[in-house]
Design goal:
mainly beta, Immunoglobulin-like, four-stranded antiparallel sheet
Length: 96
C-alpha cells in the first residue's frame, strides 16, 4: 500500500500555508486537495500503485512561485512531502 501526505509552510510569514491546492499526477490527474488551517493534507492519496508521480503545489499567496512541481518515484509505504515557500525561495524534502 502506498499513501501520500503533505504540509506547506509560508516561511515569509512564519505560518502554515492555508488553501494551497496540491495536485497529484501520473499521466492524468490522480487527485487534488487544498491544505487545511494547519497547512496540511493528511491524506492526499492512498492505495496508489508503485510508479513515478508528479506533485504540483499552487501557493496562492506567493507573489513569485505560482506552481512548484516535483517528480517522485513511489514504492511501498507512506510518503510525506512538505513544501517550504516564500517570495524568495522554496524547498522540499522527504519527511517522515
Amino acid at each position: 500500500m502506498i499513501s501520500l501526505s503533505t504540509h506547506v509552510l509560508d516561511l515569509e510569514r512564519g505560518v502554515p500555508a492555508r488553501g494551497v491546492r496540491v495536485e497529484l499526477w501520473q499521466e492524468d490527474l490522480v487527485t487534488a486537495a487544498e491544505t487545511d488551517h494547519d497547512g496540511r493534507i493528511a491524506e492526499l492519496a492512498a492505495d496508489l500503485q508503485p510508479g513515478i508521480y508528479r506533485i504540483l503545489f499552487r501557493p496562492p499567496e506567493s507573489p513569485f512561485f505560482k506552481g512548484v512541481g516535483l517528480e517522485v518515484e513511489l514504492a511501498e509505504g507512506h510518503y510525506h512531502v512538505p513544501l517550504l515557500v516564500s517570495s524568495y525561495g522554496c524547498t522540499t524534502y522527504r519527511g517522515s
